[in-house]
């Protein structure tokens, strides 16, 4: 793990789970695998606190455990999963996607499961139904069946998956020679055959509305009811987690479709969307291109509100194939032409566009021209750079050296003579896309870390003011609930002076900007990560 | 050999000077004396952030998630270490998390056994049963020696001392659980006497006749 990733993971853990878990998590990341005793010794925390933190991390899938180096008889070793921690940055995007695909019910289901790590189907259904009932007008309540159907749809499209079972429960029947280990390595969730099978549960009823006046009693009654209700449903031990890979495939498809729509037009975007939708189930996650689809199939599968004639569809497909971005390729001529979507090449092009845009925004359009030139032409001498880019020599030199000092451009020496004399050596400039993408990804992690730290600093500076405003809001809310007069309300509101109100407003504005910046940087992180992973998969 | 001669062509460089970017007579850029500034002035202003309904919804989601995750049981706060003096406000601040409890119940079958934190029940019942369990064998042992009354009396004295020792050991082992119980005893005592008089100064004479019960040698006057 790089230093920036470790720093970002630490900040994210601290934000969501507190300082104790941050301490434990950072030590685990830095030291690789550790046993419980070693971890308690390193972090100098109480053993119970370390146990609690590990429970939290395992519950959220960020930490895995397995038999240690001494085999099943030795102490258990814990291994942290950094990508899962970095996914926490993307939770709002997952929830918003679920909302756009499956409505409010789907959104709440995904939100509950993300916040709790793993949940059983019955508890998810009950909690979501209660939350939806709470927001509905009086007298209405959410039926469990609707929530169950939304859950089933999420599972059918693979957005939710079962947590992999622990093998230790099944190995207890083996002979005495191999004693069942206290713990075993959890398998890859996809390798379990029942990964996406819904359990049969007997759950019927309505969401319960929680009245604010009888909060305490309702909580106790709800807690007691939960204990009795959980024994009725038949899905003990079957926990569900969010399938991040499926969400990432969806985001990748969205990026490709929006790129095509921007570059060509809306109809081409729709055609590519149809092609991707048709090959959702037939294409594996790491495939370089989708299955070949014939033009006839595409024509039949187009949405009915798009009245495109067959020859026009053929023209669009030809345009897409001829486009230099190479999103769509032709794989054959049968069935009116076989077409594939080149996934890896599309990702590479999107990453290249990101790199070019970064250079353009930081160093100007002329430096971007030099950068694009070097990307296309591979190795060029300084004189050739000046000629091809049509930039005067002095400025070209300055820009090249700036890019070189930022490590975006590499210098390659090719000696003509064995003594490497400078006057008889070629100096060639080049840009390698993959290492540059990795460099930018680290910059992005550092950026998000800086944004989070700045937000924490701003919050800490104005802590007194924020607490005061929270107290006043609480007082206002309680006054309104008990039906106070308008004069009392205005009196309480005036406790915050006008300059304080301005300060609060500007603080809110800053924090919104920083949060929004984090979300936007995360989109770039996703694109670069997908590109880097796609290059690794193809090797 | 051409470049090695010192006398002739002293000012020749081994590489093409023009490629450096400045001529021989030009002034070099000024040397830097300090590290580069922490926030260097930017040449180009950054592009403004995206706006739109989608962006604002995700922003609201992010802030809500952050706020609600602080209330979930997964947000672990270390229990405050005991300060040197016990304060009056400690009685009213029992909402503090204790280190040895876990506020949510995970599926223990999915976690390794060593992580299991057993939530301990209130200590009164457990110490009561422990004392009962340990008393029974001792009471049985003393019943066997009923014939020698002096020895049984001596053994009862020894048993009470041993029980006190066990009580002390239990107190050392289970510090946190017993202290609230012990503090409750103190509170009850203090609440009973709400006067300013210190209880130990007052001798209500109950112990006068009771001390001499064991030794019947001395006559009572």
UniProtKB/TrEMBL annotation, chain B:
Region of interest: Disordered: 126-221
GO CC terms, sorted: RNA polymerase III complex
One record GO biological process: transcription by RNA polymerase III
One Pfam family cited in the UniProt record for this chain: RNA_pol_3_Rpc31
Bias type Acidic residues, positions: 174-196, 204-221
Biased segments, Basic and acidic residues type: 141-158
Compartment(s) where it occurs, according to its Swiss-Prot or TrEMBL record: Nucleus
Keyword Nucleus carried by entry: yes
Signal peptide stretch: none
InterPro entries given in the database record: RNA_pol_III_Rpc31
Keyword annotations from UniProtKB, A to Z: Nucleus
Primary role: DNA-dependent RNA polymerase catalyzes the transcription of DNA into RNA using the four ribonucleoside triphosphates as substrates. Specific peripheric component of RNA polymerase III which synthesizes small RNAs, such as 5S rRNA and tRNAs.
Subunit (UniProt): Component of the RNA polymerase III (Pol III) complex.
Entry's family note: Belongs to the eukaryotic RPC7 RNA polymerase subunit family.
Listed name of the protein: DNA-directed RNA polymerase III subunit
Organism: Danio rerio (Zebrafish)
């Amino acid at each position: 793990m790089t230093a920036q990733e470790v720093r970002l993971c630490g900040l994210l853990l601290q934000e969501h789970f507190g300082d104790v878990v941050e301490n434990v998590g950072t030590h685990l990341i830095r030291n690789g695998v550790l046993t419980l005793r070693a971890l308690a010794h390193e972090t100098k925390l109480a053993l119970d606190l370390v146990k609690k933190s590990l429970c939290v991390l395992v519950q959220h899938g960020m930490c895995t455990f397995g038999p240690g180096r001494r085999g099943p008889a030795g102490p258990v070793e814990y291994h942290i999963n950094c990508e899962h921690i970095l996914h926490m940055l993307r939770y709002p995007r997952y929830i918003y996607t679920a909302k756009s695909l499956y409505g409010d019910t789907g959104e709440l289901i995904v939100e509950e499961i993300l916040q709790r790590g793993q949940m059983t189907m019955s508890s998810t259904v009950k909690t979501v139904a209660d939350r939806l009932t709470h927001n509905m007008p009086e007298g209405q309540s959410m039926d469990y069946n609707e929530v169950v159907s939304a859950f089933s749809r999420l599972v059918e499209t693979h957005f939710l998956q079962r947590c992999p079972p622990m093998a230790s429960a099944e190995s207890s029947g083996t002979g005495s020679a191999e004693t069942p280990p206290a713990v075993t390595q959890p398998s890859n969730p996809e390798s379990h055959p029942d990964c996406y099978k819904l359990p049969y549960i007997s759950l019927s009823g309505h969401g319960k509305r929680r009245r604010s006046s009888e909060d305490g009693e309702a909580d106790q009654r709800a807690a007691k009811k939960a204990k009795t209700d959980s024994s009725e449903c038949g899905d003990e031990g079957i926990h569900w987690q969010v399938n991040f890979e499926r969400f990432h495939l969806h985001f990748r498809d969205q990026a490709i479709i929006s790129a095509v729509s921007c570059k060509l037009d809306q109809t081409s975007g729709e055609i590519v969307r149809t092609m991707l939708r048709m090959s959702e189930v037939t294409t594996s996650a790491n495939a370089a291109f989708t299955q070949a689809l014939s033009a006839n199939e595409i024509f039949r599968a187009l949405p009915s509100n798009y009245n495109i004639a067959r020859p026009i569809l053929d023209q669009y497909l030809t345009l897409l194939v001829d486009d230099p971005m190479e999103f769509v390729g032709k794989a054959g001529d049968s069935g009116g032409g076989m077409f594939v979507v080149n996934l890896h090449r599309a990702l590479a092009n999107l990453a290249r566009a990101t790199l070019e845009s970064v250079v353009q925004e930081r160093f100007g359009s002329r430096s971007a021209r030099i950068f694009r030139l070097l990307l296309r032409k591979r190795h060029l001498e300084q004189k050739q750079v000046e000629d091809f880019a049509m930039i005067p020599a002095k400025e070209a030199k300055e820009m090249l050296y700036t890019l070189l000092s930022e490590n975006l451009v590499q210098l390659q020496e090719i000696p003509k003579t064995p003594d490497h004399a400078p006057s008889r050596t070629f100096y060639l400039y080049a840009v390698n896309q993959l290492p540059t993408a990795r460099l930018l990804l680290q910059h992005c992690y550092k950026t998000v870390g800086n944004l989070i730290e700045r937000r924490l600093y701003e919050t800490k500076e104005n802590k007194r003011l924020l607490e005061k405003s929270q107290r006043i809001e609480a007082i206002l809310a309680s006054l309104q609930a008990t039906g106070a007069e308008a004069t009392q309300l205005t009196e309480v509101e005036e406790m915050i002076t006008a300059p304080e109100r301005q300060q609060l407003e500007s603080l809110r504005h800053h924090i919104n900007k920083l949060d929004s910046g984090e979300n936007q940087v995360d989109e770039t992180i996703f694109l670069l990560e997908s590109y880097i992973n796609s290059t690794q998969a193809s090797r | 050999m051409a470049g090695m001669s010192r006398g002739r062509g002293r000012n020749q460089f081994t590489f093409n000077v023009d490629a450096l970017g400045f001529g021989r007579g030009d002034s070099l850029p000024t040397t830097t004396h300090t590290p580069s500034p922490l926030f260097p002035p930017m040449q180009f202003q950054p592009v403004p952030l995206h706006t739109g309904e989608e962006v604002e919804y995700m922003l609201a989601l992010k802030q809500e998630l952050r706020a609600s995750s602080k209330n979930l049981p997964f947000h672990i706060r270390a229990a405050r270490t005991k300060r040197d003096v016990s304060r009056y406000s400690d009685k009213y601040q029992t909402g503090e998390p204790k280190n040895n409890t876990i506020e949510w119940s995970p599926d223990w079958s999915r976690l390794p056994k060593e992580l299991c934190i057993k939530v301990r029940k209130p200590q009164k019942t457990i110490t009561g049963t422990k004392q009962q369990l340990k008393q029974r064998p001792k009471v049985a042992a003393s019943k066997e020696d009923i014939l020698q009354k002096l020895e049984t009396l001596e053994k009862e004295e020894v048993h009470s001392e041993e029980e006190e020792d066990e009580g002390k050991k239990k107190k050392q082992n289970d510090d946190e659980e017993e202290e609230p119980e012990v503090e409750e005893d103190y509170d009850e005592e203090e609440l009973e006497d709400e006067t300013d008089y210190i209880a130990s100064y007052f001798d209500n004479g109950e112990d006068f006749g009771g001390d001499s019960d064991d030794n019947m040698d001395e006559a009572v006057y």
